[in-house]
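hey can u check if this looks right to u? its 415 residues, i copy pasted from the old doc so theres a chance i mangled smth
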Amino acid sequence: MKLGRRTFIKGTVAAGAVTAAGFPHIWIKDSSLAYAASGEIKVGVLFSLTGTTAIVEESLHKATILAIEEINAAGGINGMQIKPIVEDPASDPATFAEKARKLVLGDKCVSVFGSYTSASRKAVLPVFEKRKNLYFYPTLYEGRECSKNVIYTGAVPNQQQDEFVPWLIEKFGKRWYLIGSNYIYPKEENNYCKKLLAEAGAEVVHEEYVPLGHSEFSSVINKFRSEKPDVIFSTVVGDSVVALHRQYRAAGLDPEKMPMASLTTSENEVAAMGGDAAAGHFTSAPYFMVHESPENQKFVEAYRSRWGGDKVTHFVSEPSYFQVHLFKQAVEKLSAGDISPKTIVEAIKGEEMIAPQGRVRIEPENLHAYLWPKIGQSQSDGQFKVLKTTSEWLKPEPYKAYQNQVCTEAGLKEI
């Protein structure tokens, strides 16, 4: 059959559409060429700049942008500039998913850096898994996830609690009150905490969850008074942290007798509540702003120079920063035509760098990071005093609370 020009073009377009839908490997190859088009590598930056968790996420956005600007100023990646596409998901999981689809499908970003809460990560995860794209997640989280489309650079439960919980029991006692925000992260962290408490012969006197954005803690404070726990274990997040600490202090409670021990209270929240409201309480994290190292000094100085001399760095902004540099190291191994989410994942496995907290490494099996757990006590000047640091980096074990499961390069394995 003889084909005219119009018929030929129409058929070619239709065939291309079928090929893209039916043969993903061809779509990925074509996309890899687009990812490095015009000397740019497009990435998404997906942190909330408005809403209840913006108090934290704005700083993650700033740390990410700082790293991108540093890389671009130094010549980019193999001569290509990183182009950030910024979206504000407004602290809403559904909006996170909507914006993620835009970044992946509309903007053709090769990777996206984003999220603070697990609720938002869970909301975007189907987008990245379905489209075979790549998400960099910098936040401490509850583990129990084995995606091959996420690079996890924040702490998992064993990296925050294995030394923290026994230390608190020894120092303060065995009666614990668990208070958290009402979503998956606090509940899973508390499940792991209860496991460690049971092993030590300690008890939970009360367990309670409040909505995200909750600001009225008078009934909770009254329960603190009546229960008189030895330790208040807090996984409250966002601006609720500020309200909880201020109301604790206003009630005249004493951190020397009944301290709050947090996995989520950083220099960022302390700056918002005021040093006096935080003083005497404890946090477990891989990074504190006062950590002494040349890499951290450079990070803090650069962050303050870019965003303001009164700004603070903390244990989620720090991985937001170093994960962009790990991305750079991975992409540097690739030629422009080979850049794709899949090739970046393979290139980043086992990748190491000296981050502000110390040397970090991406574990090839589970795509989580080796980190340096520390215990800090908040001071009235808004900073932390580091009381304890591990002698070596700690391997990430995202399924440590579930001994019959392990995350491998092939996926989740039952053992």
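The domain at 22-155+294-372 is CATH 3.40.50.2300 (Rossmann fold).
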